[in-house]
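_Full entry_
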Amino acid sequence: MADPVNLPAGIGYENFDMGIIALKETSRMEGRRVESVAFGSSYWTASYGTPFLQEDQLANMDAWLLAAASAGTTFLAHDLYRPRPRLENNGSPLSGAKALGGVFDGTADLTIITNSREVIIEGLPDGFQLSIGDYLEFTMSPLIRSLHEIIEPVTANSSGQAIVKFRHGLDTQHFTIAADVQFEKSSCVMQVLGNPRVPKGWGARRASFEASEVFFQ
């Protein structure tokens, strides 16, 4: 299968939402007792809506949707409102120097998987800050990615190391310390749902579509 594509360039989105679906079943019993059981794999969904599209934007968006809606085509989805850690976001892609030398571009090293919700990461700049709600992406290959939301603030030490805790467990059967960790536009792999198209009418040149995460092994 081909590698995921990116969202089309030069097109803003006036409506966007992204969230995770966690499957669970809740049973209510006598004595005011409640049992909840999680099952299956959690997965991300997203919805996009563009503003009025100019001629070139419309052609670009229409071509992208036609390709993205094809069977087997995937794209990389990240939170458009938080493309990088909040306290490290100056409006430009992550850059700088790693604490122990080398260029930092948002990619770090996964050194220890303590459990499915806690890892030790190295290769960060000294003092690199992560906040609640920031994202990290584990990448085994272009199609094998796992996106998670950080649940505790942490600052990298002078060696560029940080202990990071996150929501929703990492699938440790398919993700190992061979994975890279990405903090710049942390993404998951999604497919467009249905067959959306851009209306061609002059007063209706706004595109909208929904997408859902897909998994590969």
